[in-house]
Amino acid sequence: MIKTNFDNYPKGKAFSDILGDFLGRGIFNVDGRCWRFQRKLASLELGSSFIRSHVLDIVLEEIETRLVPYFTVYADKNDTVLDLQDVFRRFSFDTICKFSFGFDPGSLKPCLPVSELEWAFDESSRLCAERALAHSPLVWKIKRLLNIGSEKKLKSSIRVVKRIADQVIKKRRETGSDSGSDLLSRFMSSISDDDYLRDIVISFLLAGRDTVASALTSFFFLLSQNPKVLNNIREESDRVIGPTREAVAGIGELKRLHYLHAALHESMRLYPPVQFDSKFAKHDDVLPDGTLVKRGSRVTYHPYAMGRMERIWGPDSLEFKPERWIRDGEFKQESAYKYPVYQGGVRVCLGKEMSLMEMESVALCLIRRFDVRVVNHDRLRFAPGLTATVSGGLHAMVRRRDLS
């Protein structure tokens, strides 16, 4: 599906119909020539060392000026809980907006404002997910035609997202600011169609916000249940960075934190941000195990289920065990077809390294400076969505650590 017979398994019209109003012709909603163009364009930009360094600068600024001060306020309050998922969603929304649009929504400012863009973006994502879960697409298509109920709300929220994006693009065109470091600036010279440009950037906004927040939420849930793993991460960071230094690790130091890298991969094995993915067969096919796939059939693979299968990961598949990724003291990557969290083959995620860098920076900073104790320790329950979202949030108490 994602490598040897890739061309036979496009996203398909059924998928593009669901997200078409929201993502338009963005990379996550198209196939063929349009997808290849955006893929090549994104690959050239996201693969550069300059962009990775720029992303790290954005992440570190958000950590030091907003995330740490916010956690510090809660650490000084007795018996007060915060919603980790909400904090991580705000953090990642700020960082991806700065990177994609060169625009700061300020979601993690002390008063926790809900910007118009953030609200509309979340509402659009949620309502598109409801389309995907509908028993029949005919229901939501009729509602869209009549402009009633959830489809009326979706139309309104999408209009807000596109209006704000259009305003940013128009202002950038008028000022001739196409030499910046954000994706919008770097794409402007290659794309003259502003509607197309908007669709592309909104797609990156979707990919870079919700997946990072989802992964960090489940990671801290698992750390709260596995204090030995938490201590191992702290001991490793003390060896690499030093026990008292508060500055966030640089790119070189992050590469040496093999156990942290392993722990994040292990967390996403059990709780992948995107729990399943579907494609539609263009022609009849036979899978390697002999299964016949008829033309037009929907074929789904399920990273959430795969990460818990004994025949793939062994008898301890349900255990949170970062050591399974460590060989001879170093992190070793598994095959993308065994661990399809970032997909694989032609569609492997171009933002993988940047997302890992962002998550590791956030996790490392919070783990070294604070004790974070999750309050709701029961099994995670997920709400319907395009990415894995914990129903009701993930609540925790925070205390400062003594680094002296």
UniProtKB/TrEMBL annotation:
Keyword Heme: yes
GO MF entry, a single one: oxidoreductase activity, acting on paired donors, with incorporation or reduction of molecular oxygen
Alphabetically ordered keywords of this record: Heme, Iron, Metal-binding, Oxidoreductase
Keyword presence, Cytoplasm: no
Cofactor(s) listed in the protein's UniProt record: heme
InterPro entries (UniProt xref): Cyt_P450, Cyt_P450_E_grp-I, Cyt_P450_sf
Transmembrane segments: none
Protein name (database record): Cytochrome P450 94C1-like protein
Lineage: Eukaryota, Viridiplantae, Streptophyta, Embryophyta, Tracheophyta
